Every structure is written in C-alpha cells, then in structure tokens.
Amino acid sequence: MEELIGTESILFNAIDFVFDKDTRRNLIKQGDITGYVKTASSFVGVICQLAYPLLIIANILGVVLCFA
Q1: Low-confidence residues of the chain, pLDDT below 50?
Q2: Contact 46, 13 (CB under 8 A)
Q3: What b-and-e string marks burial along 22-51, b requiring 16 or more CB atoms within 10 Å of the CB?
Q4: Please, which contacts does 48-52 make with residues 24 or more away whose CB atoms are closer than 8 Å?
Q5: What is the 3-state secondary structure (H, E, C) of the chain?
Q6: Which of 3, 23, 51, 67, CA to CA, is 20 to 30 A from 36?
Q7: Could you give the count of Cα atoms lying within 13 Å of 10 in the half-sphere of its Cβ?
C-alpha cells in the first residue's frame, strides 16, 4: 500500500490529510486513483488510531467488572 501511494508511512501523515481540507481537495483534483487512496486510507488510519485504544479500555473494564 505504501508503494502504491508513494509515501514512507501512511499513519504519520494521516492526521494531516484528514484535517487539512486544501490537501484533500488538491489530491482529489489530480484525478488519479492515488489521491482517492490516500484520502480513504487516511480516514481509515485515523479511525483505527482512535478505536483501538477504546477497544483496549473496554476490554480492561470488562475484566475488572467481571471480577468485581
């Protein structure tokens, strides 16, 4: 995926792509598939970065409540 997009690491740049409307607009205006792939993978990466810690907290809370 990184070779297709042409960046070193997707997740480090994901927050920049998600919150910078001008960058997203410029990528999509280029008209090639890489702009869409960068934008979509950035949104998925940011969602995963937020959801994974919440999942861990929910699992820990479930274990604690099970023994309480």
Answers
A1: none
A2: no
A3: ebbeebeeeeeeebebbbebbeebbeeeee
A4: 49/11, 49/14
A5: CHHHHCCCCHHHHHHHHHHCHHHHHHHHHCCCHHHHHHHHHHHHHHHHHHHHHHHHHHHHHHHHHHHC
A6: 51
A7: 20
**pTM for the whole thing?**
0.58
- Tokens linked to 53: 């810690």
| Longest CA span, the chain | 56
Tell me the one-letter amino acid at 30. Answer: Q
In whole angstroms, what is the distance from residue 5 CA to residue 41 CA? 10
CA dist., res. 25 & res. 41, Å (int): 15
